[in-house]
Amino acid sequence: MDFFNYWVVIALMMTGLYIVMAQQNLVKKLLGLNIFQTAIFILYISVAKVLGGTAPIYTESATLYSNPLPHVLILTAIVVGIATMALALALVVRIHGAYGSIEDDEIRDRSKQ
Amino acid sequence: MTVLLFVAATMLLVMLIAIVRALLGPTIYDRILAVNLFGTKTVLLIAVLGFLFGRPEFLDIALIYALINFISVIAVLRYFEYGSSTDGTRENS
Amino acid sequence: MLEQGNIVSHICLLVGAFLILSGGLGILRFPDFFTRMHAAGITETLAATLIIVGLMIIAGWGIVQLKLFFILLFVMITSPTASHALAKSALHGGLQPKVKNVVDGDSP
Amino acid sequence: MIVTQALDVVLLLLLVMTAVAIARVKDLFATVMLSGIYGLLSASFFVLMDAVDVAFTEASVGAGIFPLLMLAVLSFVGRYEADSKRRVALPVFLLTLVSGAVLLLATTQMPAFGGEDTPAQQHVAVRYIEDSPQEIGIPNMVTSVLASYRGFDTLGEVLVIFTATIGVVVVLLGVVQPGKARSLPADEDMADHKVLRIVGKMLIPLILLFALYVQFHGDYGPGGGFQAGVIFATGIILYAMLFGLSNAQRVLPMPLLRGLTALGVMIYGSVGVAGLLAGGNFLDYSVLASDPVSGQHLGILLIELGVGVTVASSMVLIFYAFSLTTSSDGSVER
Question: Is the confidence at residue D1, as pLDDT, over 80?
């Protein structure tokens, strides 16, 4: 059970990777990337956790805290993630405008013509 | 303590049900209903977790969900209102 | 006195949990959207109220209780609003409630 | 402890289930809804792992902006995936299985979950936990690390958000000729949802107020500029959705937002330069006031303000760009 979190992280990562590689739809691919990203968040947060510890906000009653550093990294990563996701979605919108489709194979066909 | 744990377990069970409903659909309204239900359950679960682990001052997270959870409902109404429940494809037009 | 508060809060929490479970069953088992929405919407407000009141009793007087009160307030405002808007939109969008002796083929 | 682990297992299993469901469902609308659930679940998980600040961020992003952007895009590009003829799924599936297995093998070398003496809990973490309440003078260690110890990192992150926003605006609105641009498409202001509008009217001030609370309470509880910015933007976006984009633009016009986005980054950078001028290092706040601790307080306050301004205006700007593009029927270029 010691590694259960890491196993789940791997399962989620692979699900995300599978979506990114196997699905043709660009929006779906982005959702896959989102899953992959969240898997990495979960990895960091799991590493930060100390069993029996508490949230890293100082109180009189606690001495054992979880590690605040990964929290910082992931906190900013989430907001950066939504900004970059917006950029990717903007590109999807423009691709749809240019090719009339957001399916990978159709776009490839049409760009060959 | 035990009671709180029991409540948390119930919440998780209902969350599972909501996932199933979001997966099955069949209409977009069912899915958005499931997400909304899930959101309320998350509010309650986070509140209960705070008490379970003895740091109930972190209710802000539940508070923010309670405040903005229904935005996704509004977004669905805004972008998928009327008629798009059956067919949303605007491709090939 | 404290014992009594505990019992009351436990009852609130347990009844709340039961209502949540019944709402969950409803959303899983009921035949069409409107009945499911009925199950979810009605149990949700009362269940949330009971659970949060239960937690408020445990918390005792203070900032935590105030925050819980605000959560309750917001859930009470937003949840019925969302249900209302959804039901209205579904009805306008052409989704008909399933009535017993109407036989038309468009029910899901 | 056993409770934590049990909840941990259940939540993670639900997460995996949702992820697999996202992979399998063909209806993109359903996948977006499931992604919303995925976000809610991961927020609960973060609370369980004591990462309250992270959960807060995930809550404000995952409940507000993320589904909104996705739905806006879906309403534009269509809801259903095409049935792709080229099935490459099996080799890809095998490939992911193999790489998953390799990674799985690697986990056996990892230190066990939740240990007190794992490498991750040594080195700087000890110092942050033990010294920051005295050194920085605020109880929230995450804010201390974010704004002070690793302030330079955070400056980078804010710059990334800034750049991404410029990218979105350029990509979506860049090609429209200024002459005939912005003839606002039939402004959808949801006028037939009276109840929603009234409730929205009640809630929007509360959301904005709560954002300010989160902004300035970030030193003492979970919160800070990132979360506050997103929440504030959510309030504005809610207004724009309920009362029409043109009304929202009257409150916060695009040029103002563009300026604010840059202003936030500039506030951040200026605080760093102020540190230099006062004789310290870049982003060293101790020299900003006579007493190092109050200098830290001042620096963190200003930095969080810069972050909040940039994040809030970026998110609103992104929403504007998307709704200007996607609500006009037909293609972007005309």
Answer: no
What is d(CA D101, CA B75) in angstroms, rounded to the nearest whole number? Answer: 40
B31 within domain boundaries: yes
The CA distance from B39 to B73, in Å, is 11
For residue A96, the chain B residue with the least C-alpha distance is B91
Q: Choose among C75, C85, C93: nearest Cβ to B66.
A: C75
CA D126 – CA D124 distance, rounded (Å): 5
Q: Which of residues 19-48 of C touch B (CB under 8 A)?
A: 20-21, 23-25, 27-28, 33, 36-37, 40, 44, 48
- Check CB contact under 8 Å for D63 and B53: no
Domain that holds residue B23: 2-80
Residue D86 lies in a domain: no
Indicate if the pLDDT at residue D162 is higher than 90. Answer: yes
Q: Return the pLDDT at B83.
A: 42
Residues D98-132: b if buried by 16+ CB within 10 A, e if exposed = eebeebeeebeebeebbeeebebbeeebeebbeeb
Residue D96 lies in a domain: no
Q: Which of residues 49-68 of C touch B (CB under 8 A)?
A: 51-52, 55, 58-59, 63-64, 67-68
C-alpha closest to that of C85 among A63, B76, D130, D27: B76
Q: Look at A35-44, B16-25, C94-103, D231-240 and tell me which has the smallest mean pLDDT.
A: C94-103
In contact, D64 and B71? CB cutoff 8 Å: yes
Compute the residue count for chain C: 108
Domain with D144, as residue range(s), is 137-334
| Residue with the two structure tokens 């940039």 | D310
D115 assigned to some structural domain:
no
pLDDT at D139 over 90: no
Of B53, B54, B91, the CB nearest to A101: B91
Is A88 a residue whose pLDDT tops 90? yes
Counted domains in chain D: 2
Report which of D280, D274, D313, D286 is spatially closest to residue D158, judged by C-alpha positions.
Answer: D313
pTM to 2 decimal places: 0.88
* Cα–Cα distance, D48 to D36 (Å, whole number): 19
pLDDT in tens, D292-307: 888 888 888 888 899 9
Residue B87 lies in a domain: no
Judgement on whether residues D199 and D57 belong to the same structural domain of the protein:
no
C94: chain B residues, CB-CB within 8 Å: 83, 85-86
Using the structure block, give the residue that is written with the tokens 């060959």.
Answer: A112
Complete domains list, chain A, with CATH: 4-112 (1.10.287.3510)
| Burial environment of residue D152 by CB neighbours within 10 A (0 to 12, 13 to 18, 19 or more) | exposed
Residues in chain A, overall count? 113
Task: List, for residues B45-58, the tens digit of each pLDDT value.
Answer: 988 888 888 777 77
Residue of D nearest to A43 (CA): D113
Q: Total structural domains in chain B? A: 1
Cβ atoms < 10 Å from Cβ of D331: 14
Cβ atoms D213, D271 nearer than 8 A: no
Q: Which residues of C touch B7 (CB under 8 A)?
A: 13-14, 16-17, 51
- Tokens, residue D293: 């601790």
pLDDT digits (tens, 9 = 90+) for A47-61: 888 888 888 888 777
